[in-house]
Amino acid sequence: MTSYFNSAIIVKPVSGQPHAGPADVRTDPNLTRIDMHDSALQNQLQLLCDEPDFQILRARLNRFDPFKALKVERYELRHTTTLAWLLDPQQTHGLGDSFLRAFLHDIRDAAGQAMLGAGQPLIGHVAVQPELRLSGGQLHAPVTDDTGGAVAAARMTGELDVLIESETWAVAIEAKIDSREGQWQLRDYGQYLKARFGGRKRLALLYLTVQPETDVIEENPDWTGIQWGGHAVTALRSSLKSHYGSDPQQALASCPADARALCEFLHGYLDLLDRLGDTLHGVADTVQKLADRYYGALGALKKALRQCEDEGLPVLPWSTQPSWSGRYWADRQLFDILVGRMRSPEAGFAAAVVERVFAPAAMPLNRFGSGINSATVRFVPQQWMDWQVGQDDRRAPLHTLMHYHVAFRNVQRDIEIKLLLPRSLDHDLQVRLVEQLLTLEKARGSASLQPKAPYLGDFLEPTGKSLKLYTDSLAWRLDGTDLALVDGADDRIAAFWHAVAEHTALLEKILSTDAR
């Protein structure tokens, strides 16, 4: 069997730059297009296993885990059922409303709106409904609007995982572990929920996944992406700390005998969520560093495993062909995690450039994240997360209507930075906002918005198309196996942040006027 190394990326800073964020990505010539026989792959895997960081990660993974032993650690239904149980303040977990309160507080920044008022009671004032079945355009669970009338739901099948509802707000959660969003699933769920609640309740639509799924959120901008290992873990850790203290062992020792099993389960589940994303909580940077350093070896392993599967060749601990079987089998969980963290040189380069772009920012930023192997990032200034865009009785968080988008472009040989209005169910709100921005910009005599006329005309029609309201780019060059930004990048970055300040000032003026 023959395989090849792919290029291993190394991120390095450029000396002499005023903002010393990483900017160049270089491929290691020793790991480029090596003809990979079984013995070569075995040697490379052994080198990876000998890394001190690999051995630290191995020790963390080898701890006993009853959830893993029972094979429920990635069982989606079990997780969503447990999540709904924890969110319901009247369930038997003993946490009261602390997990729900912490969860709602934690999603505030992600969802761009606060659900809870100061001191708002939850117990007896919220309904948590898991697994709402949707079929044939009708919800099997009782679904009515606030006046008691039925709400139609077109082209709907499946189940909404969790709905949390109070008299003034609702939070819908669609959760995934290893599966992906079904065709039109989020769009249809979102349309149904907006029709049901309209402007009567504040509505947050949350897409809960193991890793950020930027492509899904970009296609469904009404939904906000959150992560099991981030938002769910943060809320559960906060809740457990308030009830049991920060030390799990001390908590177990001090628990009454009849509460010890529950305490142990809750702390064990927290530990499971920590590891669910294969990020090995607290050492995600170490995992990514190893995956980047051994990009070639991991790429060869991935290709070899696929070839074995295609040829029906078993990879078992006692196999002698391929010769690397035993080495892979001994640490297959960690190898699989590292393979899952592989990112292309383009994605690594884009990540390095984003850090350099962010370095001189004079304001806090909210980054929506990207897939591990995605050469794109979305973000907005933190201030934007508190702003709402409204017309009549309709309102939507600003960041669901527009955001900055950074993307690696191969044909154009640049990193594009744009202020994007993506396709949205609230297209009419987007159109009104753009018209207000362009009118105010003209009155102020600034030139920070640069929509191209043909695209602007298409956007202003009720077609639901996206629009680049502002665009700039950072050109890159390729010298041999090196990727690097061309000279003058820092001047372009400074100009971009000047434009961001102008955009923020325009938005603040418009939205403060609307609020009055």
Q: How would you sum up this structure, described in words?
A:
The protein has 516 residues and is an alpha+beta fold. It has 3 domains: 3-61 and 281-340, no CATH class; 76-244, Trna Endonuclease, Chain: A, domain 1 (3-Layer(aba) Sandwich), CATH 3.40.1350; 345-515, no CATH class. The chain has helices at 38-49, 52-61, 66-69, 76-87, 98-111, 185-197, 214-219, 228-244, 248-254, 257-276, 284-293, 295-311, 325-330, 332-340, 345-358, 398-401, 427-444, 453-460, 489-515; strands at residues 3-4, 9-13, 22-27, 35-36, 127-135, 138-139, 158-165, 169-175, 202-209, 224-227, 365-369, 376-381, 388-391, 394-397, 403-409, 414-421, 467-479, 482-485. The strands form 4 sheets. The protein has an 8-stranded antiparallel β-sheet with strand order 2-3-18-17-16-15-12-11, sandwiched between helices. A 6-stranded mixed β-sheet has the order 6-5-7-8-9-10, sandwiched between helices. Helix 8 (228-244) runs antiparallel to helix 10 (257-276). Residues 1-35, 69-74 and 136-156 have low confidence and may be disordered.
Question: Quick gist of this model?
Answer:
The protein has 516 residues and is of the alpha+beta class.
Can you tag this structure with a few keywords?
516 residues, alpha+beta, Trna Endonuclease, Chain: A, domain 1, 3 domains, 8-stranded antiparallel sheet, 6-stranded mixed sheet, 19 helices, 44% helix, 20% strand, globular, disordered N terminus, PDDEXK_4, PD-(D/E)XK nuclease family protein
